[in-house]
Specification:
CATH superfamily: Copper homeostasis (CutC) domain
Strand order of the largest sheet: 1-2-3-4-5-6-7-8
Largest sheet: 8 strands, parallel, barrel
Number of helices: 8
Strand content: 15-25%
CATH class: Alpha Beta
CATH architecture: Alpha-Beta Barrel
Number of domains: 1
Order of helices and strands: EHEHEEHEHHEHEHEH
Structural class: alpha/beta
Helix content: 25-40%
CATH topology: TIM Barrel
């Protein structure tokens, strides 16, 4: 059975999601982009209210946003880090490697944008090649860069998912997923379905987490066997 990851923007939202039975809490600020980075204070506040048995991941924005990043970062209590590659350029692999070496901490989740051409990000195969070749990358997230358009996931992504899973990597699917999309995509066999908008009031990713919606999604996950 796949688990449910819910992205939250505050400790209050994290408490709501935890009470509804989610598998993973992700900290993200949707106003800052598809993988918008929240403040380090929010990371700490969320980790403090989430039980240690529930992993907490953090979204770190896009690689280009780290060009001038400096100083040590406290990653205490965090389980995963994910970073987008929109407009990352031809030397993205080298710059991502440099970033990882300068910021040791929890393992990384490589992000593949399903609309990679629009995002001007590396191709799915290129990201997967690098992700499977480095020891500190333990999973892959397939997400949507343009949150204003429907998700693009379907059966054509089966080879990417299968290759990642065959290599022992965790696979998470995201990108404007709702209950119908989750049912349809169970055939891909991911480890996690990741949502923000589907867990919010009125399906609005900028609104607050809705406990009723989260509970319904958790029940849906429990009903899907694969």
């Amino acid at each position: 059975m796949a688990g449910l990851l819910v992205s939250v923007r505050s400790a209050e939202e994290a408490c709501v999601a935890v009470a509804s039975g989610v598998s993973v809490i992700d900290v993200k600020e949707p106003a800052h982009g598809p993988l918008g980075r929240a403040s380090r204070e929010v990371w700490s506040e969320v980790r403090a209210v989430v039980p240690k048995t529930i992993p907490v991941s953090v979204a770190l924005g896009e690689l280009n946003e780290w060009e001038v990043s400096a100083g040590a970062i406290d990653w205490t209590g965090l389980s995963y880090r994910k970073l987008g590659l929109a407009r990352a350029g031809h030397d993205w692999a080298e710059r991502w490697a440099d970033l990882r070496s300068r910021h040791p901490g929890p393992p990384w989740i490589a992000t593949i944008y399903s609309d990679w051409l629009a995002a001007k990000s590396p191709s799915p195969d290129a990201v997967l090649d690098v992700a499977l070749s480095v020891f500190d990358c333990v999973g892959v997230l397939i997400d949507t860069w343009d949150k204003g358009r429907p998700g693009r996931l379907g059966e054509s992504w089966l080879p990417v998912v299968a290759r990642a899973k065959a290599a022992g990597r965790l696979v998470a699917l995201a990108g404007r997923l709702d209950a119908e999309a989750i049912r349809r995509l169970t055939m891909l066999g991911p480890d996690l379905f990741a949502v923000r908008g589907a867990a919010c009031v009125d399906g609005d990713r900028y609104a607050a987490i809705d406990p009723v919606r989260v509970t319904e999604l958790v029940r849906l996950m429990a009903s899907l066997a694969f």
